[in-house]
Amino acid sequence: MNATTSAAAKPGAPEVARRTPSSVVTSLVLGVLGVTIAFGITGPFAIIKARQAIAEIDEKPERYEGRTLALVGLVLGVVSTLWLLTWVVLGFTAGFGGIDLFQVLQTALNQALGPNAIVYALAAIGLNIHFGYTGLLNFGQAGFMAVGAYGLAVSVTTWGLPFAVAIGISLLAPVVLALLLGVPTLRLRADYLAIATIATAEILRLIFGAVETKSVFGGSNGLNNFANTFDDANIYRTWGIFQPGGALGFDRLDIWVASFSKRDLWSMTIGWVLVALACLVVWALMRSPWGRLLRAIREDEDAVRSLGKNVFAYKMQALILGGLFGGMAGMFLALKQGSVVPSDYSTNMTFLAFVALLIGGAARVAGPVIGAMILWFLIAGLGSFFGQATTGSDPFMPTWLMDNTQASLVRFVAVGAGLMLLMIFRPQGIFGDRREIAIDGR
Known about the structure:
Layout: H1 22-35, H2 43-59, H3 67-93, H4 101-113, H5 115-133, H6 141-158, H7 163-185, H8 190-209, H9 214-217, E1 223-224, H10 228-232, H11 235-238, E2 253-255, E3 258-260, H12 262-286, H13 289-306, H14 311-337, E4 339-340, H15 347-360, H16 367-389, H17 404-425
């Protein structure tokens, strides 16, 4: 016998124990969820994982087993997918289960294109510069948003400064915050910046809502009456062409299933222009030598330092630029609401901005924008769906499963489950590269 013959071919050699691929279990779980409580939504994912498991088992039958279980997962996936298609068709045609899917779609699109998506798109663009391009773990983007919002509100309401000056202060505040955070932390490991930013965001939120600082920041009730200049500039209310009877006149803009008031439309016009300019700036910078150096720092900052580059200075510049976009997001949120309240700038805002970034894909110019739109489409659409499914004398969902009070919270559970599925099937996001989120390599 040849010396290179494997041990498995020798008489008496122990057989290698076969195991069941993890994709088999995943397909079963997704299939069961689809035919029980997920309304078929997980069915397509169950089919994908089942097919993947079957191919894996067929390729190496001596190593893997569990083909029957994979087939069960495939059948469950097909059944749940058919259920999903059935109630979607019936929902649009006959109002299946008392649920108006047209209204669900309208609510979802309003939010996906509306001001809330713009706020999170700007915040996620800032996080993209920090995390996606430079590898900085900023868990306190809400803090940059808060100082941007309060910089505007305090300047106008408390100090009585002109609106244009207040805009400048609002953009300067996150730059100062980035300097205060970056000087003591950017020379240390990445997790120190994460700890410092999340702690700073919470400290700022508590300071803005404290009784002792109520004369300046308005306490827990916040500040208002600072967005009058922004509202007065609304061309959809002041220009005759948009007034009823004008060439483009309307009281409320209705486009297919989307509907917006004139105030929201004005906020959207300014907001999407800001998003477009932000994307243009990021696109130009990341194709310059400066942007390529940021990517190199993300991959191996020691190698960049060995070439004589000042890594600290480049990290500081990235922290300032990303924080500036975060402050811009906070300023826009304040203007579109007409008020600032400390509770609006909790850590939840940072985490949702990260979700938007991960959905769209890190280190991609359009990733944060598409991610924010998808995030709010899902949050609003699921909220409307569960709200309708739990109301009425005979609700679609039994009260033992969910009541109307729980409906507004379950949508976040569903979004979280969807994010988990995304991390399983495509961890790099829709447009991203898997290497862009390799945290363990930083």
